Amino acid sequence: MPNLSREQQREQTRRTLVREGRRLFATQGYAAVGLSEIVAAAGVTKGALYHHFDGKAALFHAVLAQVQEEVARRVAATADAQDDPWTQFTAGCQAFLTASTDPQVQRIMLVDGPAVLGWAQWRALDEAGSARHLSDALGALIEAGAIAPQPGAPLARLLSGAMNEAALWLAASGRPQDMADTLAALNRMLTALRVR
C-alpha cells in the first residue's frame, strides 16, 4: 500500500477486516470464528484489528450493520421500482423475505445477530434499516386508507417477526417449493390487511 495515504491505508484495512469477518461469520458462524483466523484471512495483525474494533463482537456489529443496510437497500429499490403504494409495500415485503433467505444473510442477520449483540442492539440496527421502511410503508397505507386505521408500530413488528420466522424456517426446510408457498402465504396475509 505504498501509494496510499495513512487514512486510505486505515480505511482499506478496515474494509478488509469487515470483508473477511463477514465471509468467515457467514460460512462458519460467529462462535466458530476466532480473532486469529480473522486477522490471518485479512493479512493484518491483531493490533490492526484492535485499532479499528474493540474486539470480535465490535467487528461483527460492523458486519451486521453492513448486511442490514444491503438488505434495506434491496427492499427499498424493489419497492421504489413500483408505481402504486400497495404494490410497493407488497413487493418490499417479498424482497425482504427473499433477501433474508440467503443462507449467509440469515446466519449473520437472523441467527447470530440477536445472539451476539443482544435483542435491544440487534433491534436498533433492524429499526435503522428494513424495519423503518416497513413502518413507513404501513404508515402511508394507513394514512391513505388502504389499511384500516390502527397503530402502525405493533403491526410493523408483527409483520417483521412473521417474515423473519419464515426466513429461518425456509433455511431449515430445504424444499424448493416452500419458498413459493411462503411467498403465496405472505401475499394472502398482506392482502387480508387491505381495506376493500
From TrEMBL:
Q: Which InterPro entries match?
A: Homeodomain-like_sf, HTH-type_TetR-like_transc_reg, HTH_TetR, Rv0078-like_C
**The entry's keywords:** DNA-binding, Transcription, Transcription regulation
Q: Would you indicate the residue range of the signal peptide?
A: none
Q: Which residues bind DNA?
A: 34-53
Pfam families listed in its UniProt record: TetR_C_41, TetR_N
Q: Where is the HTH tetR-type domain?
A: 11-71
- MF annotations from Gene Ontology: DNA-binding transcription factor activity; transcription cis-regulatory region binding
The record, for PANTHER family, names: HTH-TYPE TRANSCRIPTIONAL REGULATOR BETI, HTH-TYPE TRANSCRIPTIONAL REGULATOR RUTR
The name of this protein is: AcrR family transcriptional regulator
Q: Which organism is it from?
A: Plantactinospora soyae
